[in-house]
Structure formats: C-alpha cells, structure tokens
Design the sequence.
C-alpha cells in the first residue's frame, strides 16, 4: 500500500513537470527532463521490488500450504476445519503450533522429573496439575527421585481438533524414546534401568480460548502407553 501511494504521488509530479516544458528555457527544460527520467527509474525500481515481494510471498505461501497439508493429512475434514479455524484465530502457523506443542511436551517431562511445580502449573490445567503434584509429593515422601531422559521425539501427530464455542481443543499423539528410572535415598535403582530405552506413546490434548490474546495453550489431558 505504501509503494502504491508513493507511485501515485510520483506520477502526479511527472505530469505536473511535463506540463511546464513549453513555458521555460532550454536549461530548465533539461533539468525537468532529468527529474522526469529519475522518477521513471524510481517507479520501475519500486514496481520491480513490489512484484518481487509478491512472487516471494507466493512461494512462501505455497511451501506453507505443503507443510500444512503434510501435518494435517491424517485428520478427518471436520477436525481439519476446526484446527485451521483455531490457528487462524490465534494468528499462528500449523508448524509453529506443532513446534510449540513439542516444546511443551519436553518441558513437562523435565519439570515432572525435577519436581518443578511452577513450570507444571504454568503449562497444565488445574485438574492435570493436581495429579502431577500428587505424584511428586508421593515420590518425595518415599525419598525417591525420578530420572527422565528424553532421547528423541520420533513423531508428533495431530489426531483430532474441535471447537467448543471460543475454545479450541487439539489432541496430539507423541511417540518418543525415553530412559526413565527411579532411585531411592541410597542411590539404588528401584524402578526402570539406566540402559533401557523405551518407546512411549502419549496422547495429550491442548486447549485455548482463541479470543484471548494470551498465546499459551493449556494441557488438559495426558494419557501414556
């Protein structure tokens, strides 16, 4: 819009200068012709920049559409429609949402093992937080320590999405490689093994009121296999 506005002003100046050519001497005429030539070059440059920007944006949009289609390929039409309504309302991309969900997954695993209640309270709904807090307190009472090592997230897949009024709910399946074990107060392993990598599947649901500017999504359900 700024470029088009500037171009309109430049054209106006061009025609105003051209109208004066028959009323002035040769020296002034040469100066005006030089100004007209400069305006033409400027307009051509602005036009090329604008077209280049449009072409670049077109390529970016095409690439984003491919990413969106890949990420949501397993969703049924209704879930896909609800999901895109949610991220459009939140002004984010599909890829950004999924990367954020993976980050939240990692943070929760680390916070649960480290008894970081502040982080858990920030990420979890009140009901889910209460369950995590209870498990942590039981662990502390038994003088036990949980060691969790998230090796990798092999898959993060959106499996459903719904809109309940202004609230969006998106369910994601995480498949990860982890090492988990519990040690007692004497440093002895009572559960799990240090050298055993397990493949775990987690189904988590994220919720957000899309009318609220706060960008955080809350985890409202966690199920592990």
Sequence:
């Amino acid at each position: 819009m700024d470029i088009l506005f500037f171009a309109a002003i430049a054209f106006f100046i061009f025609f105003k200068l051209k109208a004066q050519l028959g009323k002035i001497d040769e020296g002034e005429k040469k100066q005006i012709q030089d100004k007209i030539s400069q305006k033409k070059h400027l307009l051509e440059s602005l036009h090329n920049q604008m077209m280049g920007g449009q072409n670049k944006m077109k390529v970016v949009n095409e690439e984003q559409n491919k990413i969106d289609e890949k990420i949501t390929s397993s969703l049924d039409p209704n879930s896909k429609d609800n999901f895109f309504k949610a991220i459009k309302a939140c002004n984010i991309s599909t890829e950004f949402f999924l990367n954020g969900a993976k980050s939240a997954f990692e943070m929760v695993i680390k916070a649960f093992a480290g008894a970081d209640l502040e982080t858990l309270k920030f990420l979890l709904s009140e009901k889910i937080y209460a369950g995590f807090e209870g498990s942590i307190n039981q662990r502390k009472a038994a003088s036990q320590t949980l060691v969790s090592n998230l090796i990798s997230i092999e898959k993060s897949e959106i499996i459903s999405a719904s809109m309940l009024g202004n609230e969006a709910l998106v369910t994601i399946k995480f498949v990860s490689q982890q090492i988990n074990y519990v040690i007692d107060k004497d440093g002895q392993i009572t559960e799990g093994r240090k050298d055993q990598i397990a493949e775990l599947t987690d189904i988590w649901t994220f919720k957000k009121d899309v009318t609220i500017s706060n960008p955080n999504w809350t985890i409202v359900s966690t199920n592990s296999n």
Q: What stands out?
A: The helical segments are 2-19, 26-71, 77-89, 94-113, 117-123, 126-141. The chain has two domains: 2-69, 75-224. Residues 1-6 have pLDDT under 50 and may be disordered. The chain is about 55% helix and 25% strand.
